[in-house]
Design a protein that fits this description.
alpha+beta; 301 residues
């Protein structure tokens, strides 16, 4: 399987590609060489709620959420936001399911302008606002308990799981229902953020009267361009532990074109490692820690 490599985007430009390979290799080796991390990984996969996690702790569900639920099943101490995803989230949030992965939309809107400092004094545009990395930012999450791309299970069998996650998105995007579903999820996150701003009071509503029409017009323009994208127009990438917020393997998918990222944050680009960089490192290293072993196939469902 070939993966497109384009120079036009900072996430994948030629100068940056080597650095991203080295970042992945360094994070992988640090994690797999950490005996404590590997022991915790075993306990996490066993869903051991009696174990005290230290290295993996920040990737798990916040302590305040243990015993609580966002849908039907309460979270356990060893859970993450994405682990056993269907147990904790309503079915409509899952856009597509394969035997090995789910496709879900990003909860945050893509538009940085919807997170102004007046809505939250802690927000500094481009520094700590939670917008996605591009219009239609989507996540493909592993159904199995795989902690991160540095987890040996992620790159086992010639990176079969990573390849499956990529293939799942591409196949879904090319179906008749794929684009409308992803656009609807993008629109929903956009509208939900505007509704939240409107609930902040009369002052916020007055500001939105001036800003919202421009945001709406930009959304429609971006949606028209986005709907015509092909596989080569997307970035498929990972944030290697500890440079991640959720301790469960997930692939970020967003447009590579600068115009479709013009209202989105770039602050995560430094840690955004393209799939091709990971595959290339695993080929070069002969599957260190399981990367190129096996037959390149995934077991079961």
């Amino acid at each position: 399987m070939a993966y497109a490599f384009h120079r036009e985007d900072g996430v994948l430009d030629k100068r940056d590609f080597k650095a991203k390979k080295e970042l992945y290799r360094r994070r992988r080796d640090e994690f797999r060489g950490n005996e404590t991390a590997m022991r915790e990984l075993e306990e996490w996969k066993a869903r051991n709620d009696n174990f005290e996690f230290v290295v993996l702790r920040d990737g798990l569900i916040p302590p305040a959420m243990v015993g609580k639920s966002t849908d039907s099943t309460p979270y356990r101490k060893s859970d993450t936001w994405f682990s056993e995803y269907p147990l904790h989230n309503p079915p409509p949030t899952i856009l597509s399911t394969s035997p090995h992965s789910h496709i879900i939309g990003n909860l945050a809107s893509y538009d940085q302008r919807q997170y102004p400092p007046w809505s939250n004094p802690a927000y500094i545009p481009g520094i700590n606002t939670p917008e996605g990395q591009g219009f239609g930012h989507t996540l493909v999450i592993s159904r199995a308990r795989v902690f991160n791309v540095v987890d040996p299970s992620a790159t086992a069998h010639r990176c079969a799981l990573l390849r499956e996650m990529h293939a799942h998105f591409v196949a879904f995007w090319e179906t008749e229902r794929g684009k409308p579903l992803l656009l609807r999820r993008t629109r929903s996150a956009f509208d939900e953020r505007n509704e939240k701003l409107e609930r902040m009071g009369e002052g916020a509503r007055e500001r939105l009267k001036m800003e919202k029409p421009r945001w709406e017009g930009d959304f429609e323009q971006l949606a028209g361009v986005w709907g015509g994208l092909s596989e080569a127009d997307f970035v498929f990438a990972f944030h290697a532990f500890p440079d991640c917020s959720v301790g469960h393997l997930h692939m970020h998918v967003f447009p590579r074109g600068g115009w479709l990222r013009r209202f989105s944050g770039k602050r995560h680009d430094w840690k955004t490692i393209p799939l091709e960089a990971i595959l290339e490192v695993e080929r070069e290293d002969g599957g260190k820690g399981g990367g190129e072993g096996g037959e390149g196939r995934l077991e079961g469902g």
